[in-house]
Design brief:
With 307 residues, this protein is α/β, with parallel strands linked by helices. Strand 15 and strand 16 form a beta hairpin. The chain has eight helices and 16 strands.
């Protein structure tokens, strides 16, 4: 897949970034990789990047997730890019090739998101817990009410499309694991708001996509990746700042983000979150229920990882 570039940005999580790159190189040896590194650059890190043929860019410390992603999009030469995070683990049977085939052949799809499986591992590298993450939504934006509502696909029956023998669901928002067309960004209307370093950039991006792009967003659960969250004190100090939420509210005239079954996030003051109770998944009853099981090949791969 030489026409698909893997891109991610990293800050204070060198071990996670290294593991992510190793997993890409093991399973996608010829695919280009672009990394925007906001951390200290060491000789060891540079050597690792070069040995793995990574297009790496040293950005100012804490330049911001939004700035880093826009920077990478400008650098990518390939017609398609796969957006990810530095704590992802890519596996052989991820079905990224099938997802790319869909985007190549369905000209209306601008972004095709995949399935993210959160995992916990013990010291031996074995999986001790797994949980599928759901963040696929339809958008309802009412500036007159100060409301951005994110309606989970779990709660209704979204349109289903079929292409190249695969089915996928139309929506407005997917997770940060998605194939995107490079030309989606040519008009500059679709981009990450660089005033938001983190926390709020996701909703801002997909609201821009919803309002300004003729292309569609879709969810393809056959495409999958493992997510092993890496938290440390340095990274945590930057990850959970709420300034971005207030910028999001001011930019769009929104005072609250509502997700049925989950709760309300207020975008003023301390950006308080109020829970709406547990969300009961109905995904297990649909045509992709069998996809929620972690692939056997992924388990085998992880047992060889010693971190």
């Amino acid at each position: 897949m030489r026409d698909l570039a893997f891109i991610f940005t990293t800050l204070e999580r060198d071990d996670a970034a290294r593991r992510c790159i190793e997993s890409i190189r093991e399973n996608f040896p010829v695919s280009p990789i672009y990394v925007a590194d906001q951390s200290e650059m060491t000789e060891e890190k540079i050597r690792f990047y070069e040995e793995n043929r990574v297009n790496y860019y040293r950005l100012p410390f804490d330049a911001g997730l939004s700035f880093a992603r826009n920077f990478l999009v400008d650098k990518v030469k390939e017609p398609y890019l796969l957006l990810g995070d530095d704590d992802f683990i890519h596996v052989k049977n991820s079905n990224i090739d099938s997802a790319l085939e869909i985007v190549r052949n369905d000209p209306e799809i601008g972004i095709l998101g995949g399935r993210v499986v959160d995992i916990e591992m013990d010291s031996a590298g074995s999986i001790v817990n797994r949980r599928e993450r759901f963040y696929e939504h339809a958008i309802v934006y009412r500036q007159d009410l100060g409301l951005l509502a994110l309606l989970p696909l779990k709660r209704f029956s979204p349109p289903v499309r079929t292409c190249c023998g695969h089915s996928y669901l139309l929506c407005d928002v997917v997770l940060n694991f998605a194939i995107m067309r490079k030309d989606l960004f040519e008009s500059k209307k679709v981009h990450w708001n660089e005033e938001i370093k983190i926390f709020g950039e996701h909703e801002d991006f997909y609201l821009r996509m919803h309002l300004y792009s003729e292309k569609k967003v879709a969810y393809f659960p056959e495409m999958n990746v493992l997510h092993h969250r890496v938290l440390n004190e340095n990274y945590g100090n930057y990850r959970y700042r709420k300034d971005g939420l207030r910028v999001l509210g001011e930019e769009w005239g929104v005072t609250q983000i509502f997700e049925p079954g989950v709760g309300v996030r207020y975008l003023t003051g301390d950006c308080e979150f109020k829970s709406d109770g547990p969300l009961t998944s109905v995904f297990s009853k649909r045509w992709y229920s069998h996809l929620t099981r972690l692939p056997i090949a992924a388990v085998r791969w992880l047992k060889r990882v010693k971190r």
